[in-house]
Amino acid sequence: MTDLDLCWAFEEACANGWPARRIAVSGGWMLRMSGGRMRRPNSLVPLNGPRDDPRRIIGIAESIYRAHGQAPIFRIPSFADEMDALLDEDTYPREGRSLTIAGPLYAFRSSETDVAIATRPSAAWLASRHRLTGDEGTLDAPIFEGMLSAIVFPTAFASISREGKIASLAYAVLQDKLLVVESVVTDSEHRGRGLARRTLSALFAWGRHHGADMACLQVIADNEPVLRLYRGLGLDRDVFAYHYRRGELAIR
Q: pLDDT value at position 111?
């Protein structure tokens, strides 16, 4: 497998781990639309293979997003960035530079005993996720729950509780031998105590038990404390970077 093939394999697995509510495909590009504040399920992305003229696709995406009351957002992976220079010309500001990182799972053989794992999210897991991310009471909460229900690959939802409530959680999606980890969050009152490490270790052990040999996740590039955590767990390979370009909701 070439480096480019590997990038596409990770890109596709991560997309399947965070699916959009609605999609449209045109000329080798995929437009994703879900509503709410989240960028990833509300952005246009390139697909593997031949792709049409990006300038034409930009115009199509702008029209569709604005017709649905959403600002056009373009997600630019470093290995398929032909749209980036055109968006520079159109003064689309960059934001949200992130890394897709990965590492092997051979060291993770047994689960943490105080981490609960289920194949579907419980009501407590969902409520805690919304509370910890600030989505509680917002449109993003039901959007996120709908996204989870659209995942078709095997899933695991992990959590660790302290003082009677969930203090750290994450979920993972298993595609072939790749484990994609998403939505890692820890209660601010319990950070620095190794809870996220224990939660992730349990998910990695679950993935290895079910045939995964590598894990990956996506993280904001300048979040140094989180990157140190992930590097310490063996996710020390930078597969590719990406960023977003966000336009205005209406043309001035």
A: 66
**Domain count of the fold of the chain:** 2
Per the structure, the complete domain to which residue 119 belongs is given by 106-212
Residue 230 falls inside a structural domain? no
Whether 63 and 132 map to the same domain: the answer is no
pLDDT tens, position by position, 42-78:
999 999 999 999 999 999 999 999 999 999 999 999 9
Query: Residues 134, 166: one domain?
Result: yes
Is residue 128's pLDDT more than 70?
yes
CA distances from 204 to 67, 116, 132, 189, 227 (A): 42, 13, 22, 25, 17
The single-letter code of the amino acid at 140 is D
Specify burial of residue 93 (Cβ count, 10 A radius: 0-12, 13-18, 19+). Answer: exposed
**Distance (Å) of CA 159 to CA 19, 56, 84, 99, 202:** 22, 45, 38, 24, 9
Predicted local confidence at residue 107, as pLDDT: 79
* H/E run at residue 199: helix 195-209
For residue 252, is pLDDT > 60? no
Gap between the Cα atoms of 70 and 43, Å rounded = 10
Output the pLDDT for position 251: 61
Beta bridge partners of 250: none
Residue-wise over 217-235: b if at least 16 C-beta within 10 A, else e? bbbebeeeeebebbeebbb
CA–CA distances in Å: residue 81 to residues 3, 53, 86, 241: 16, 12, 10, 11
* 3 state DSSP class of 163: coil
